[in-house]
């Protein structure tokens, strides 16, 4: 697995590979506008996942992970965990907030020390 840091401008290039419903929930509305950069996971030359980061947070609450998505064929293989841990390293921060989360994403977040699930989060499932 290769992880690559991307700029805010590059994030849009990957959105076409995320199913529309997942995109709307995880990255829609104003959520992209607060992103400062992201990390992309590539596995065997295929897009495996994306995590986006904001220094100020969605609501000004401080450094936070705005969205995390892993391609279905790469789930349960440590991709999400690797992306989350790498955000901490790239951002040089350990206490990052996560505001929108799926039930399966919650399990992944709980594996990474220092990630804080925001009080405004209610876990949900993507269909």
Characterize the structure shown.
The protein is an alpha/beta fold and 127 residues long. It has a single domain (2-117), classed as Gcn5-related N-acetyltransferase (GNAT) (Aminopeptidase), CATH 3.40.630. The protein is built from 4 helices and 6 strands; from the N terminus they run βααβββαβαβ. It has a 6-stranded mixed sheet with strand order 1-2-3-4-5-6, with helices on both faces. The chain is globular and about 35 Å long. The model has no long low-confidence stretch (mean pLDDT 80).
Compact description:
With 127 residues, this protein is of the alpha/beta class. 29% of the residues lie in helices and 28% in strands. A six-stranded mixed beta sheet has the order 1-2-3-4-5-6, sandwiched between helices.
Do you know the CATH topology?
Answer: Aminopeptidase
Average pLDDT reading: 80
Work out the count of structural domains.
1
Beta content: 25-35%
Query: Can you tell me the residue ranges where pLDDT is under 50 for at least 5 consecutive residues?
Result: none
Label the structural class.
alpha/beta
Q: Could you give a short account of the major beta sheet?
A: 6 strands, mixed
Rg, please?
A: 13 Å
CATH superfamily: Gcn5-related N-acetyltransferase (GNAT)
Shape: globular
Give the count of helical stretches: 4
CATH class: Alpha Beta
CA distance, first residue to last residue: 26 Å
What's the helix-strand series? Answer: EHHEEEHEHE
Strand order within the widest beta sheet = 1-2-3-4-5-6
Query: Helicity, in percent?
Result: 25-40%
In the CATH classification, which architecture applies? Answer: 3-Layer(aba) Sandwich
Oligomer: single chain
Number of strands: 6
């Amino acid at each position: 697995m290769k992880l690559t840091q991307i700029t805010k401008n590059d994030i849009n290039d990957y959105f076409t590979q995320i199913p529309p419903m997942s995109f709307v929930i995880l990255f829609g509305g104003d959520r992209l506008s607060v992103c400062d950069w992201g990390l992309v996971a590539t596995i065997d030359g295929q897009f495996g996942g994306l995590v986006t980061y904001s220094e100020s947070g969605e609501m000004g609450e401080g450094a936070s992970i705005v969205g995390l998505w892993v391609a279905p064929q790469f789930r349960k293989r440590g991709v999400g965990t690797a992306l989350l841990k790498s955000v901490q390293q790239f951002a040089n921060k350990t206490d990052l907030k996560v505001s929108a989360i799926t039930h399966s994403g919650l399990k992944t977040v709980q594996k990474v020390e220092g990630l804080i699930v925001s009080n405004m989060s209610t876990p949900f499932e993507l269909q």
